[in-house]
Amino acid sequence: MRPITAFAQNRTTITMSSPSLAVTRVLASSTKLLLLPVPLRRFPSRSIATTSTTRIKPSSLVRIAHSASNLRNVRMLDERKPFAPDFFFRQLFDEKSWTYTYLLADLTSKEAILIDPVLEQAPRDAKLIQELGLKLTYALNTHMHADHITGTGYLKQLLPGTVSVISEASGAKADKHLKDNEVVKFGRFEIKGLCTPGHTNGCMTYLVDEMGIAFTGDTLLIRGCGRTDFQEGDSRTLYKSVHERIFTLPDNYRLFPAHDYKGNMETSVAEEKQYNPRLTKDVDAFVEIMANLNLPYPKMIDKAVPANRECGLYDIPKE
Which positions, given as ranges, span the membrane (predicted)? Predict the structure, then answer.
């Protein structure tokens, strides 16, 4: 007798609407249930999970599966780590390059960091930091960008004392170069740099373990990833970086990319492991997908890369 498999959250008893099949018994964990069709006859109450049965159509099994999946997703979101009362987080956006910049701070010490600032938005960022009474200690880049010029250099002028940060493998100039797993502190908080090459050699994902968040740059986007056809890009390397350094984080960790082009603001490890249309494939399929994207040449690359190699100190507006 061939079993029918579906998903459910709790033990239940289901009767299929069929002239020859009746009670199906739940043989399941909290995530998977096995429905065994059996001949139609009356069962004593002790032989089934409940004392009565509910007649449903086989098509309802699809709704059961969807409901169970939704419940799992709700539970996943409910389990996210809450931000500490003294932790400040602000997501900022540049419309021209579709870039997200992130401001994090310790509200007690007032020490702050910026991740992936954009040149044209440096005055906005500096004004916000001053209005909030914060002190910018570090301006970090997840990698040497090709679609915009970093605001790091300009921020060093607007907010003296700011230290520029990028990975050692990036090849870009900075006040501080990070090695894999090296930590930067702001107040009582710390952010760790994880080397996640593939989009470029110098890509880093920045992790704040205590808050359950990571900033993935262009390595992992929401339902996508950075391209691998320029700047030492390599599809197999990117795939390995995501699967070994990001997908191994706890499922409920929230992920914040450097860009999004569809209006999404954040994702999670669990979401991307389940729904990312590229990175849920095996490595060979992923490599084939990336090789056939046929993307246009980046408009800003010839200007942005030379500028960002100097950590944004090139072509800065004059005061």
Answer: none
